[in-house]
Design brief:
Helix content is about 40%, strand content about 15%. The protein is of the alpha/beta class. Strands 1, 2, 3, 4, 5, 6, 7, 8, 9 and 10 form a ten-stranded mixed β-sheet that branches. α10 packs across α11 and α10 packs across α12. The protein starts with a strand and ends in a 16-residue tail after the last helix.
Length: about 350
């Protein structure tokens, strides 16, 4: 069952905290699709947008929550709510079947979805991150080659890591079979801190920041982007919905990028907004600072926030073919569209 949270601008924090706690604890909320009969001001388009999160609310969605909580969507004339998929759903599936109009993606999600004929497209890339291997900076692992014969904690079932980890090992003279991989779920920091594994997969920013907070030191980090395109985060849209509601889709993306601008320029305010809405969710300020920095892509000064790096997507598509995630190569245009990006790029003084 899909768990749904319907949120207008700035609801009472106690009510919202209780709602989120219900989601996190698995208490069912009413499941229903996004309304599409709301009146808009643009040629009969709906002004309603339902956004599918990838997980429960967290700092990684700071661009969306900034836009929601600071009123950017409302100022654009949009009525925005969001849904949290349960364990049997994904944001891509909810967007693909029309239960959400847009959704959060990371890694190879949009490519695998299009490869499965799910009708969606990347509309904006809101952060440029990394995935890789973390190690104790005071330990014996000083290079990837030092992992030979060691236990390595991995995120099982994450296509990007499954494709890029062997590449990193091979680039450093190791075969994929020369390390003993251990499934750590999505909590890779704890087994690394306890010494149960010599290294563990982690995102940067994400687990690397958690490790730094809990240990007092930044981990030694071996990034997969040495051998793969970056680990990208962003928003995909239901292709049919966006085609039918192009102005609404464009307004949604632009307001979201205003949220990214706030994340980049004022992480303290982003943290305040989120904490005020979700007082029971502990999200350190450092995570907001690091993820705010990640909204600046390499070409953000020229292209603006949220631009789609076609070269990176081309590499990720090729990676998906080589790892047999998709049966045949796709064109970038089949996966990504710039149609809904602002005509005047959203820029940040911090990029």
């Amino acid at each position: 069952m899909m768990k749904r949270i319907v949120q207008k601008r700035r609801p009472g924090p106690r009510l919202l905290a209780a709602t989120v706690a219900a989601v996190v604890m698995g208490v069912g909320l009413a499941a229903c699709g996004g309304d599409d009969d709301g009146g808009g001001d643009s040629g009969g388009e709906s002004n309603k947008v339902t956004f599918a999160l990838g997980f429960s609310p967290n700092y990684g969605q700071v661009s969306f929550f900034n836009a929601l909580l600071a009123g950017y969507y409302e100022d654009a004339g949009l009525d925005v709510d969001y849904v949290v998929p349960d364990s049997t759903q994904t944001a891509a599936k909810l967007v693909g079947v029309g239960r959400a109009d847009a959704g959060e993606f990371f890694g190879l999600d949009p490519i695998s979805a299009v490869g499965e004929d799910i009708p969606l497209k990347v509309a904006t890339t809101w952060a440029f991150g990394q995935l890789g291997l973390m190690a104790d900076p005071a330990g014996d692992v000083k290079s990837v080659a030092d992992l030979e014969g060691q236990q390595v904690g991995i995120f099982s079932g994450l296509p990007y890591s499954e494709a890029c980890r062997p590449r990193l090992l091979e680039a450093n003279g190791l075969s994929p079979d020369s390390v003993d991989t251990v499934d750590v779920g999505f909590n890779s920091v704890t087994p690394l801190l306890s010494g149960k594994v010599a290294a563990a997969e982690g995102g940067d920013p994400a687990e690397t920041v958690t490790y730094e907070i809990e240990s007092g030191n930044a981990p030694t980090y071996f990034s997969y982007d040495e051998v793969c395109a970056p680990f990208l985060f962003g928003v995909f849209v239901n292709d049919e919905w966006a085609s039918d509601n192009p102005e609404t889709a464009s307004k949604f993306i632009e307001a979201t990028l205003q949220g990214a601008k706030l994340a980049n320029e004022d992480p303290e305010e982003s943290h305040r907004l989120f904490t005020e809405e979700f007082p029971d969710l502990e999200q350190p300020l450092l995570q907001f600072e690091k993820f705010g920095e990640a909204t600046c892509g390499p070409d953000a000064a020229e292209e603006g926030l949220g631009y789609n790096p076609s070269g990176d997507y081309e590499e990720l598509i090729q990676l998906s073919v080589e790892s047999e995630l998709i049966p045949e190569e796709l064109s970038v245009d089949e996966v990504v569209t710039d149609e809904y990006l602002p005509e005047e790029p959203v820029t940040s003084s911090a990029c």
